[in-house]
Design goal:
Layout: H1 10-21, H2 35-40, E1 45-56, E2 59-71, H3 75-82, H4 89-93, E3 98-112, E4 115-130, E5 133-147, E6 153-157, E7 160-166, H5 167-175, E8 185-200, E9 203-217, H6 223-232, H7 241-256, E10 258-274, E11 277-289, E12 292-302, E13 305-315, H8 320-329, H9 338-343, E14 350-360, E15 364-365, E16 382-383, E17 387-398, E18 401-402, E19 405-406, E20 408-419, E21 439-451, E22 456-466, E23 470-479, H10 490-497, E24 501-511, H11 514-525, H12 530-548, H13 553-567, E25 571-578, E26 584-585, H14 586-591, H15 595-599, E27 602-608
Antiparallel strand pairs: 1-2, 2-3, 3-4, 4-5, 5-6, 5-7, 6-8, 7-8, 8-9, 9-10, 10-11, 11-12, 12-13, 13-14, 14-17, 15-16, 17-20, 18-19, 20-21, 21-22, 22-23, 23-24, 24-25, 24-26, 25-27
Helix pairs in contact: 5-6, 6-7, 7-8, 11-12, 12-13
C-alpha cells in the first residue's frame, strides 16, 4: 500500500490486502446459518453478484462482479451479509461458506486526512471458504495510488498468495477494541507477494519477492484500524500534549500487539537522487524471525562512494523497554524529557557483520595560494587516491540497559584494513606511514562491564593489534561508578565521574615489527646507526624513567623492564594496583605534584620478555 505521511503502513497493508482480496474482509464467531437460509438453499449453487459495495472500517470495497461457487446461500442471503446492520460484521461474515470466490476486479479506497489511497486488485480468487476461514487466496496483481497531500505516491504488486487465512481473527483485530492483554490470534499461516514496486517523493523501491509465515496479532483499545490512522496523523499531533501522549500509548500497543513467525524478502533495491547525486541501495536477501534479523549481499553507491557487506545480523533485539517507556509517556502531560526519551532505547542484543568493503572518493588537496605578484595561474586542487576500507568480521554485543545505556558491552573487529594515510591525523597512529606501513590490518577488542553492587566498571580487555606491528592490551578496574554516572543530565553524570577511582591496571605490549621500523625511521632522520640509537634509548629508559617517576622500587622496576624491552623488543608487562582498596580518585591524580607521588600509592610490578 501507499505510505501516508511517509510512515510504513505494514499492518494496514497486511490486513487490508487480505480483506480486500476477499471482499468479505472480516470474520466472527463461527455459527450456524440463519434458518431462512437453511430452508431456502437446499442445494449447493453458484451465485453471481453485480456492483457489490462493502464498508470495512474506514475502507470502502467495490467490485463490478463477484462470482460465488459451491454455496448454499442465495443471492439475497449474500447481499444481506454485505449490508451494514445491527449484527456486527464479523458475525455476519462468519456465516459465509463457499467452495470458491472469483472477483475479476476489486477496488479498495481509504481516506487518511487529506489523502486518499486507492488500490485495484486483479483476478482475485479464494478457495474453500468455511466459517470465516479461507484455505487459499490469491490475486494476479494490484496497483495503488495516493492522491492529496501534494506528494505523489504509487505502487504495483505482482502475484499475491495467502494460505490459512482467519477472517474471524482479522475482523476482531481491526474492528473490535480490546485491552491489549488478550492472547495473540493468528491471522494467516503464510503469504507471498511478487514484484513489488513503490515510488514516492523521488524514491523507487523494488522487491522481487516477499514471503512470510504465522502473522499474529492481539486486540488493542484503539482497534488496529484506529491505531494505524492515529499513527498516520502523528505529525498533526506534535503540538498537542494530549494527542501526543495518546499516540505514545497507541504505538506501544502496536509494537507489543503483533508477532511474526518469519518474513523473507529477496531482490530489494532502493534508488533515489539526493542533492543531484544518484543513490542506490541493494540487498540480496533479508530474513526476519522471532530469533532475530539477518541481511545478506548488501551494497550501496552514492556518487563516487560505494560499499558492500556480505552479511549483517541482529540477535537478541527487543522493543520491550521501548514499550514500557511509551506506556509511561502515554500517562504523562507535557514534553518528554531527555530521560524519558533515553528510556525508549530498545534492548540492542548483538550486531554482527561480515566482509565489509567501502570505497570512498579521493580527498581534494587545496591549491596553494598564489604569491603576491606571481604571474603563473593557480593550479586546480590535486586529488588523492581513493580510500578503501575493509572489515573481515565484526560483532557488537550490548547487555542490559540502565537509563537507556548498556551496562555491558563488547566490540570485536577482526581484519580492519585501511590505508595508513587514513589515520595520518590521529595521535600515535599518524606516523605509521613514515615507518613503511602502506596498508594497515588491525584487530580491535573492547570488553566492558558495570557491576552495580560493587560500583565498579571493569575493562576485561581493551586491545589493538596490527599485522607486522604488534599489540597493546589493557585490563583495568574503576571504582566509585554508581548509577548517577548513567544519568541523562550531563551535569549529574559528569559530576558523578569525578568521584571515580582507579583501582587496578594491567598493560601488555607485544612487538612483532613496529619497534624495529620505528628505530630504522628515527635513526635515518637523526643520521645515527640503528644500534647507536637503540643504545641511547636503553640508557634513557633504564636511568631516565626511574628518575622521572621518583626512583622508588616500582619506578626502578619499570625502567629496568623498559630497558630490557628496548634491547630485545618482545613483550612488556606492567601491573599496577592501588594500595588503598578504594582506589585513587581522579581528582587526586590531577592534584599530584609529581608522577612519583602517584606511583608511591601503587603496588607496581614490571617485566619484559
Amino acid at each position: 500500500m501507499i505510505v501516508p505521511q511517509g510512515r510504513p503502513f505494514l499492518m494496514r497493508t497486511a490486513g487490508l490486502s487480505v480483506c480486500a482480496l476477499l471482499v468479505f474482509g472480516g470474520g466472527g464467531p463461527i455459527g450456524p446459518l440463519p434458518a431462512s437460509a437453511q430452508e431456502a438453499a437446499s442445494a449447493v449453487q453458484d451465485v453471481t453478484l453485480q456492483n457489490v459495495t462493502m464498508t470495512f472500517g474506514g475502507t470502502v470495497l467495490t467490485a463490478p462482479q463477484v462470482i460465488v461457487s459451491g454455496t448454499r446461500l442465495t443471492k439475497d442471503d449474500l447481499l444481506a451479509l454485505l449490508r451494514s446492520g445491527p449484527e456486527p460484521l464479523p458475525a455476519r461474515l462468519a456465516k459465509f461458506d463457499a467452495a470458491s470466490i472469483v472477483i475479476p476486479e476489486l477496488r479498495s479506497e481509504i481516506r487518511v486526512g487529506p489523502r486518499t489511497q486507492t488500490v485495484i486488485y486483479r483476478d482475485v480468487t479464494a478457495k474453500d471458504v468455511r466459517g470465516g476461514r479461507i484455505a487459499q487466496a490469491a490475486a494476479a496483481g494490484a496497483t495503488a495510488a495516493e492522491a492529496g497531500g501534494g506528494e505523489k505516491r504509487s505502487a504495483s504488486y505482482g502475484r499475491m498468495e495467502m494460505r490459512d487465512v482467519d477472517l474471524t481473527a482479522m475482523a476482531r483485530l481491526y474492528g473490535e477494541a480490546g485491552d491489549a492483554k488478550s492472547p495473540m490470534m493468528r491471522l494467516y499461516g503464510a503469504f507471498s507477494v511478487s514484484d513489488t514496486l513503490m515510488e514516492a517523493d523521488g524514491t523507487v523501491v523494488k522487491v522481487a519477492r516477499i514471503e512470510g509465515t504465522d502473522l499474529s496479532g492481539r486486540q488493542i483499545p484503539a482497534t488496529w484500524t484506529g491505531a494505524l490512522d492515529a499513527m498516520a496523523r502523528a505529525d498533526q499531533a506534535q503540538g498537542n500534549p494530549a494527542d501526543r501522549a495518546r499516540i505514545f500509548g497507541v504505538m506501544a500497543d502496536v509494537l507489543d500487539g503483533f508477532s511474526v513467525g518469519s518474513v523473507q524478502a529477496t531482490g530489494l533495491t532502493i534508488s533515489q537522487t539526493k542533492d543531484g547525486e544518484p543513490v542506490s541501495i541493494g540487498m540480496g536477501r533479508m530474513v526476519l524471525s522471532s530469533g532475530g534479523l539477518s541481511m545478506e549481499d548488501l551494497g550501496f553507491t552514492a556518487g563516487d562512494a560505494a560499499g558492500k557487506l556480505a552479511r549483517l545480523s541482529v540477535a537478541g533485539f527487543s522493543f520491550a523497554p521501548t514499550v514500557v517507556a511509551m506506556r509511561k509517556l502515554s500517562t504523562q502531560a507535557g514534553e518528554p524529557t531527555e530521560a524519558d526519551l533515553r528510556q525508549m532505547t530498545p534492548a540492542l542484543g548483538t550486531l554482527a557483520f561480515k566482509d565489509l568493503s567501502l570505497d570512498l572518493p579521493p580527498d581534494e588537496v587545496p591549491a596553494s595560494p598564489k604569491p603576491p605578484g606571481a604571474a603563473s595561474p593557480v593550479l586546480p586542487p590535486a586529488a588523492t587516491a581513493p580510500t578503501h576500507i575493509g572489515l573481515r568480521d565484526g560483532a557488537l554485543a550490548f547487555g542490559p540497559l540502565r537509563d537507556g545505556v548498556p551496562t555491558t558491552g563488547r566490540a570485536n573487529l577482526s581484519g580492519l584494513t585501511l590505508p595508513a594515510s587514513a589515520v595520518a591525523g590521529i595521535p600515535g597512529l599518524g606516523s605509521l606511514g613514515a615507518y613503511g606501513y602502506r596498508d594497515l590490518d588491525l584487530n580491535v577488542v573492547a570488553d566492558t562491564a558495570w557491576n552495580e553492587a560493587a560500583k565498579e566498571l571493569s575493562f576485561s580487555e581493551v586491545s589493538v593489534s596490527g599485522k607486522d606491528m604488534g599489540s597493546v592490551t589493557i585490563n583495568g578496574t574503576l571504582g566509585g561508578i554508581g548509577p548517577a554516572v548513567f544519568d541523562p543530565d550531563p551535569s549529574v553524570s559528569t559530576f558523578a565521574m569525578l568521584g571515580a577511582t582507579a583501582k587496578a591496571l594491567d598493560l601488555r605490549i607485544e612487538n612483532t615489527g613496529l619497534f624495529e621500523r620505528f628505530i630504522a625511521s628515527q635513526s635515518k632522520s637523526l643520521s645515527l646507526k640503528p644500534e647507536e640509537l637503540t643504545q641511547e634509548y636503553v640508557t634513557a629508559t633504564t636511568f631516565g624513567v626511574p628518575a622521572i617517576l621518583g626512583n622508588s622500587a616500582g619506578a626502578k622496576a619499570i625502567g629496568a623492564a623498559l630497558g630490557q624491552f628496548v634491547t630485545k623488543p618482545g613483550t612488556f608487562l606492567l601491573s599496577a594496583k592501588a594500595k588503598n582498596a578504594g582506589g585513587i580518585g581522579m581528582l587526586e591524580f590531577s592534584a599530584a605534584p609529581t608522577p612519583g607521588a602517584v606511583l608511591d600509592r601503587l603496588d607496581v610490578s614490571a617485566k619484559a620478555n
